[in-house]
Amino acid sequence: MADATQSLLAAGFVETVFHCPACGVSGMSLSRPAALLDRTCADCNEPVVTTVLDRFAR
Ligand SMILES: [Zn+2]
């Protein structure tokens, strides 16, 4: 894992997988947990389904 990712995780970011049911866009991102509650798709602005990966959970 890259040092930058480690730093983000240490700062409280979580690794997430998002998927947009409306247009089918999906991907991974690092996000602050507080920012996950109201995420929308960058392409179509519809709400996206976000799953937090817990493999780095402490
Ligand atoms: Zn979309």
Briefly say what this structure is.
The protein has one domain (3-52). Helix content is 14%, strand content 28%.
Could you say which structural class the secondary elements and strand pairing correspond to?
Answer: alpha+beta
User: In one word, what is the shape?
Assistant: elongated
SSE order, one letter for each helix or strand = HEEE
Strand order of the largest sheet: 2-1-3
Please report the distance between the alpha carbons of the first and last residues.
16 Å
Heterogens: zinc ion
Taking the sheet with the most strands, its summary is:
3 strands, antiparallel
Q: Helical residue percent?
A: 10-25%
- Beta-strand content estimate: 25-35%
The total count of helices amounts to 1
Beta-strand segment tally:
3
Poorly predicted runs of 5 or more residues? none
Number of domains as seen in the coordinates:
1
Protein name: Small CPxCG-related zinc finger protein
Organism: Solirubrobacter deserti
